[in-house]
Amino acid sequence: MANLKEIKRKINSVKNTQKTTRAMKLVSTAKLRRTEELAKRSRAYEAAINQTMSEIASSIRKYKVGGIRGRYFEERPTPEVVDIIFITADKGLCGGFNFQTIKRVRQLIAQYEELGSKVRLKAVGKKGIEYFRFQGYPLEQEVVGLSSAPDYQKAAQFIDETVQEFLEGKSDKVILVHNGYKNMITQEMKQVDLLPIDIGSFQEVEVTSMMELEPDEGERVLESLINKYIEFNMYYALIDSLAAEHSARMQAMDAATKNAKEMVEKLTISYNKARQESITTELIEIISGMEAMK
Amino acid sequence: MEKLKLEIVTPHGLIFEGEVQSVTFPGEEGEFGVLPRHATLLALLKPGVIEIDKGDGKRESIVINWGHVKVDEHGARALVDGAIPLAGADESEIAKKIEEAKELIERASENKAALAAVEARIERAAKII
User: Fold this and answer.
1) Which contacts (CB < 8 Å, 24+ apart) does range B19-24 have?
2) What string of H, E and C letters represents the secondary structure of A1-15?
3) B72 contacts B7 by C-beta, under 8 angstroms
4) ipTM for the complex?
5) In this structure, is the dihedral angle defined by the CA atoms of residues A93, A97, A101 and A104, taken in order, positive or negative?
6) Chain B closest CA to A44's CA: distance in Å?
7) Alpha carbon of B74: minimum distance to chain A alpha carbons (Å)
8) Do the Cβ atoms of B79 and A48 come closer than 8 Å?
């Protein structure tokens, strides 16, 4: 027979955990809503910059404007150095959210190392950093605090270094991996080749007239626009990842709360049984005592 | 009267969207105005004021720090880093926006002379409103 006091203590402890998980779920729901709002506002910029990039890509194809076939677009067949940027959360308790990203990164490492490329990892978020540090895998760059509070300036600063290195020829490919938001209950792994930019990936749009550039050194205008495009992609990935993190945590906490509830029910039943048993035993003792007295 | 479609966005959201009669941008190589059916153009913008003439006698000014604008015959689309519209319900609100705008410009530019010129423009734009 389980100790009554022991069971009572367990029930209380589970109930306390349930309180915490329920609160965390509510917090995540609220935060998710805020992040979604942020993402929604950013989507206006995304649409605009994509449209502009498509128009430029189309007019390059149509008028064969030179110069732009430069470093940003050059695909190198066997990349020697591959930069993998990945975004994980700073905090845990969000189910398999972080681990999915880590798993994908490990796959990519294996894939490129097989090709003979050198892989450099750039980590955003504490969880990913901790994991690879524990594994003894060197990290080229580590950023903490950016994935839980996306900031355009900081995101731009972070990615600019990588872009600079790419332009200098120190790396041949830049891949961005993050676990993105699909809807309230699903997350989706997203993997983008940030650099070189695949000019074919832009939608073909109708261009009616030759584009003029101002200032006249076309390279500079396009370069800064492309930089913006990359910076924004980085920033947007951070927001997307944050939204996914909150939705994953919401789900994980919801499941935990449910499990706690079931646990309390089970424990309560065994508590009642144990109580009943002890009453029965006591009664038997009294009755048999009385019998003996007769 | 023909109008052109104007869209101004920042990474943090849409700032302006609508049909306007004309718009003036602070281009890197000098200010330029855009009317409907403008030739295709991609230009860099420097810190300054975007002035919008909505046609019905209403004007609007938006202070920006840096960005690009793509113009074609249908309209103009500006991608800017930071933007503050100089508008508000009352004087104190507008005064607050002007302060914010000045701060935005100060962070964007180190050139003191250019800064002063832009600040003067902001004051002037505010007076028109």
Assistant:
1) B19/B55, B20/B52, B20/B53, B20/B54, B20/B55, B21/B53, B21/B54, B21/B55, B22/B52, B22/B53, B23/B50, B23/B51, B23/B52, B23/B53, B23/B76, B24/B50, B24/B51
2) CCCHHHHHHHHHHHH
3) no
4) 0.82
5) positive
6) 6
7) 11
8) yes
A211 and B81: CB-CB below 8 Å?
no
Question: Do residues A143 and A123 lie in contact, with contact meaning Cβ atoms separated by under 8 Å?
Answer: yes
Residues of A within 8 A of B5 (CB-CB) are: none
pTM above 0.95, yes or no: no
Task: Report d(CA A266, CA A10) in Å as an integer.
Answer: 11
Nearest CA in chain B to A38: B12
Contact in structure between A106 and A191 (CB atoms under 8 Å)? no
Residue B108: pLDDT over 80: no
Tell me the nearest-neighbour CA distance from A97 into chain B, angstroms: 26
CATH of domain A28-251: 3.40.1380.10
pLDDT number for residue A87: 93
Which residues have C-beta within 8 Å of that of residue B44, sequence separation ≥ 6?
Answer: A214, A215, A220, A221, A224, B27, B28, B67, B68
pLDDT for the residue A108: 93
pLDDT score at A246: 93
Residue of A nearest to B40 (CA): A211
> What is the average per-residue pLDDT within A13-30?
95
Q: Are B16 and B87 in contact (CB under 8 A)?
A: no
Please state the CATH superfamily assignment of the domain spanning residues B1-129 in this structure.
Answer: F0F1 ATP synthase delta/epsilon subunit, N-terminal (2.60.15.10)
d(CA A194, CA A230) in angstroms, rounded, equals 7
Q: Classify A121 as helix, strand or coil.
A: strand
Average pLDDT over residues A264-292: 94
Angle formed by the axes of helices A97-114 and A218-293, nearest 10°: 130
The domain made up of A4-26+254-293 has a fold known as Helix Hairpins (1.10.287)
pLDDT digits (tens, 9 = 90+) for B45-84: 988 889 999 888 888 889 898 899 999 888 899 999 888 8
Instruction: List pLDDT tens digits, range A193-251.
Output: 888 887 777 877 777 677 777 777 667 888 888 889 999 999 999 999 999 999 999 99
